[in-house]
Design goal:
The protein contains 13 helices and twelve strands. It has 448 residues and is an alpha+beta fold. The strands form four sheets. It has a four-stranded antiparallel beta sheet. The N and C termini lie far apart (46 Å). This is Dyp-type peroxidase.
């Protein structure tokens, strides 16, 4: 089985350059014909997985739609209604199930979503600020003179100068190997059926992942669950300071919460001290399992962040099959870095935008968010949530094995707060071309 790389938009399968400079542009569609014209102008610029490695301008662009965006560009409403329920309803409508409560409630979001006007999104990336800005100019030019399309939001993202996300962790070290993408998996890299991430291929349930409507619309497409998450960096630093009196100090506490040292070195391979040499070796940094080597979480706590979002083989033999709940994660930071050593916020907005690629948003993203991040039952942790990104309204403590007694951390704060989110559809290049030829859509800008 080989994936059709020329049809799949590149962000699904290909890694980003390091460093990288990106942007999210979110648009409202008030005129279906204008949207189709803009999309036709953009099509030559959309990057496929085949062309990702060596673009002539060292920059990339990909296109997504909300459910309402598909309707407004002309996809028949009855077809859109048959798409996965989370996508059709929109992420804001799923807030209770996802644990987006309190400060994370959608009433507090500052990013557009499908329920308040976001219909079309462009994801851009360059190997330099100049390359990104040149691609941005192309995106703006494609929409110029089309009054039925309005820019709602522009957010610059990338990797901070520290080469780490705002909490200080090296990011993006692990991802599944997708069957048919080419190359060979690295040690410790799970081989996952392509249908878990791309429609039109067999998934881990032995079925062909699909969607309603003509095959040209959904084949080689996928869904992305986007989350804009504000990081309370000062609160995280204060928590480490206040609980850093144990052996290993603050860095040990940070490692036990994440499951990796902040260098990216996994506790599974170096539980007592950081070892950046392991991170530098792509053949070593993910070469670990849990079931035989660490079933009780003495090295990597069972409730730690990386063990929750990717249990690897720890759930083998249980009713939960981790293979059917995998996500392909793309994380990009936004906002300035809080100065080193500062324990108070400076009023700047900073955080991370997660783009979680999955062919079945309910079975993959929503399951992981609700059952593994915000609930600890699956690993015997009761209602304890993820110590880094979990909700705090049910419990606010975290514990892990230590000597001479188990360590319990109390008073975890809301280190992260959701500030936006949406389920979007990322079509194939043929689907995008097909959309430019659709009749109908919402009509003229004064339509209701």
């Amino acid at each position: 089985m080989t994936l059709d790389l020329a049809e799949i938009q590149g962000t699904v399968l290909r890694n980003r350059p390091m460093p990288y400079f990106g942007a999210y542009l979110l648009f409202r569609i008030d005129d279906g014909e204008a949207a189709r014209q803009g999309l036709a102008r953009l099509l030559p610029q959309v990057t496929s997985a085949r062309d990702w490695e060596a673009p002539a301008d060292q920059a990339w662009i990909n296109v997504v739609f909300t459910a309402e965006g598909l309707r407004r560009i002309g996809v028949p409403a009855d077809i859109v209604a048959g798409f996965p329920l989370p996508f059709v309803q929109g992420m804001a409508a799923r807030r209770v199930f996802l644990g987006d409560v309190g400060d994370s409630d959608p009433v507090n979001w500052d990013w557009p979503h499908g329920g308040n006007g976001f219909h079309l999104g462009l994801f851009l990336m360059g190997q330099s600020e100049e390359a990104r800005d040149a691609k941005l100019a192309i995106g703006h030019e494609a929409m110029r003179g089309l009054p039925g399309i309005r820019l709602l939001s522009h957010l610059d993202v990338g990797i901070p100068p520290t080469m780490r996300e705002h909490f200080g962790y090296v990011d993006g070290l692990s991802r599944p190997f997708i069957e048919g993408e080419g190359g060979e998996p690295q040690p410790g890299q799970d081989v996952t059926k392509a249908g878990e991430f791309v429609l039109g291929y067999e998934n881990e349930l032995g079925r062909i992942a699909s969607a309603p409507g003509p095959e040209i619309l959904w084949r080689n497409g996928t869904f992305i669950s986007i989350r804009k998450i504000r990081q309370n960096v000062a609160a995280f630093r204060r928590f480490l300071r206040d609980n850093g009196d144990a052996p290993g100090g603050e860095e040990m506490v940070a490692a036990k919460m994440m499951g990796r040292w902040r260098s990216g070195c996994p506790l599974a391979l170096s539980p007592d001290h950081d070892d950046p040499d392991i991170v530098a070796d792509p053949l070593r940094r993910n070469a670990f399992r849990y079931r035989e080597d660490d079933p009780d979480g003495r090295k990597t706590p069972v409730g730690s962040h990386i063990r929750r979002i990717n249990p690897r083989d720890a759930l083998d033999g249980t009713i939960s099959d981790a293979r059917t709940h995998r996500l392909l994660r793309r994380g990009s930071a936004y906002g300035p870095v809080l100065p080193e050593g500062s324990l108070e916020e400076d009023g700047e907005d900073r955080g991370i935008v997660l783009a979680l690629i999955n062919a079945d948003p309910a079975r993959q993203f929503e399951f992981v968010q609700s059952q593994w991040i915000n609930d600890g039952d699956f690993v015997g942790e009761g209602s304890r949530s993820d110590p880094i990104i979990g909700r705090r309204d049910l419990t606010d403590d975290y514990s892990y094995p230590a000597r001479p007694v188990r360590r319990r951390l109390k008073g975890l704060a809301d280190f992260t707060v959701v500030r936006g989110g949406e389920h979007v559809f990322l079509p194939s290049l043929s689907a995008l071309r097909w959309m430019t030829e659709l009749p109908g859509g919402i009509g003229k800008p004064d339509a209701t």
